[in-house]
């Protein structure tokens, strides 16, 4: 019995999470457990049933505990193992009670419990783990991002921009004017997000302070030139909003 | 996000200095006004010896907000104050000059006179 259940657990692991969640695994354990109980009943001892029940429960508990450590996403599985045990336990107690009353026909009981098993045990956390796969596996979205960033970097020369730099941009405005407008100001913030890396520039325009946020890899930015570097001890210089320097 | 009771600076030489928003023109229960929206405002402070006086109800168009203005190309613009230009019923500004920068979106909203008078269009 130990080999059967451990084999089915490992099978579920290898085949992926959808298989793990399916009723296939549950029906396999369900099929094995009542047969074990029925063989105990055939021996004809009530004590042996209860002891086998406890033994199976203990075994399942340790098995699930050790397996959860090995799996990749322990958080989701640790939560799933607990509810899984209780319906199995209830199923087992009900099936064992059934086996105790009708000792003559163990085969019909096993078929009943097999059909009962997929209905009782439900998994609720399907979409959470799917989301975790997409986030935690740094395969798909980050590689595309890196490639896109390198593509843009080959086309234009984009210098390193940190908060505290005084920067002059040449931005093309597509709205019916092909002139390049120059924007000169101090970088007060930079937000790293792959291709969507943005930075904020603060400047004084005609007596009014204006903050503009630009995507770093935007095709509208034709040129970035670093004029000066100021020493700052902060990543986001939002305190400059209250300072309102006369220059810049 | 200008709503009633918001104080706004005035950026033309119409005579008013500070306005308080009373109502946002548009839908019946419209909550906030952004750049390019017309509001009904009352003059809280006026320059003396001008045609506009204190506690007069006029219309104005918002040209600068502290709330960010988002553009389709990913750019975001944020000013340091809230400001409006006093207009009449047709949408022409009342004064002859405009101070400060104006956002480009006003051109699409048919405030071309304001955009042409502006010293800088962002």
TrEMBL record, chain A:
GO terms for molecular function: structural constituent of ribosome. NCBIfam families: rplS_bact. PANTHER family: LARGE RIBOSOMAL SUBUNIT PROTEIN BL19M, RIBOSOMAL PROTEIN L19. This is Ribosomal protein L19. InterPro entries: Ribosomal_bL19, Ribosomal_bL19_sf, Translation_prot_SH3-like_sf. Keywords: Ribonucleoprotein, Ribosomal protein. GO terms for cellular component: ribonucleoprotein complex; ribosome. The keyword Transferase does not apply. GO terms for biological process: translation. The keyword Ribonucleoprotein applies. Signal peptide: none annotated. Belongs to the bacterial ribosomal protein bL19 family.
TrEMBL record, chain B:
InterPro entries: Ribosomal_uL14, Ribosomal_uL14_bac-type, Ribosomal_uL14_CS, Ribosomal_uL14_sf. Keywords: Plastid, Ribonucleoprotein, Ribosomal protein, RNA-binding, rRNA-binding. Pfam families: Ribosomal_L14. It is found in: Plastid. It comes from the Eukaryota. PROSITE patterns: RIBOSOMAL_L14. One of its GO terms (molecular function) is large ribosomal subunit rRNA binding. GO terms for cellular component: cytosolic large ribosomal subunit; plastid. One of its GO terms (biological process) is translation. NCBIfam families: rplN_bact. This is Large ribosomal subunit protein uL14c. It comes from Hibiscus trionum (Flower of an hour).
